[in-house]
Design brief:
The protein is globular, with a radius of gyration of 18 Å. The protein is mainly beta and about 250 residues long.
């Protein structure tokens, strides 16, 4: 991960780069990305993939298959387990991360193998992904037999998976019923998934919108309060969609 300084006032070029996190595992390119978000505590939270290496999610010395919680220099944030840079382990492939300003609730969105994409709370602990020996994708996403105290997902897709992608919370009185909802883009399922989540982290309702624009990559609420979603199209096929909230079915 790198911190970039952009030129001013146009911001169209990089004038300085500082690497703040290095040494993340990389293999074939699978599960090698990361999703950063600043949390309400002022620290940078980063969801990492396991790089399709079976040992990384449970390896305390690896940054793969983890949620990192770091300061702006890349050092471990105070309160992390064991003083490490990671906050939780046992993850497969985190694609989305979001915080709700009204109650500081934090969640991640994660790819499962052939089943069980997950929405997880951002809390310390082991989330139970351990695809060894080798890279055995038939094991459970949250293996409660191997890890009885593993943190369970607040929502799971079951089968088929949706390929969850970017996530954001929507907030504002003008949104009506959508005030406080979690919006998660999907790739394989090609829709925007809306979740109603309580302050305790319970999903009470969920449904689909935008099912006719292909693969969706990342939703963000703009400064105007509206929701914008990028599609996964390459070149001239890519779009930025503006979304109007609708009542749940």
């Amino acid at each position: 991960m790198a911190r970039l300084t952009l030129s001013t006032p146009d911001g169209d070029s990089v004038v300085d780069r500082t690497d703040i996190v290095t040494g993340m595992p990389y293999s074939s390119g699978r599960h090698s990305g990361c999703r950063p978000r600043f949390g309400p505590d002022g620290y940078l939270w980063v969801g990492t993939g396991d790089a399709a290496i079976g040992t990384t999610p449970q390896d305390d010395n690896s940054l793969g298959g983890k949620v990192l919680r770091i300061d702006r220099t890349g050092a471990a944030a105070p309160g992390n387990p064991g003083g490490r840079r990671w906050f939780s382990k046992g993850h497969r492939n985190i694609q989305g991360m979001a915080f709700r300003a009204s109650d500081d609730l934090g969640v991640s969105a994660e790819h499962g193998p052939s089943v069980d994409d997950e929405v997880n709370l951002l809390e310390p602990g082991n989330f139970g992904w351990d695809p060894v020996p080798g890279y055995d994708e038939s094991v459970p996403m949250t293996d409660l037999e191997k890890f009885p105290n593993a943190v369970e997902a607040i929502w799971s897709s079951g089968s088929p998976t949706l390929a969850l992608s970017g996530a954001t919370f929507m907030e504002g009185n003008a949104l009506g019923e959508w005030d406080g909802v979690l919006a998660v883009a999907t790739l394989k399922a090609s829709h925007l998934h809306i979740y109603f989540v309580t302050s305790e982290g319970e999903v009470t309702n969920d449904f689909r919108v935008i099912e006719d624009e292909g693969r969706l990559r990342s939703p963000r609420q703009g400064p105007d309060g509206l929701l914008y979603v990028t599609t996964d199209g390459g070149g001239s096929d890519g779009k930025v969609l503006q979304v109007t909230p609708v009542l749940s079915p």
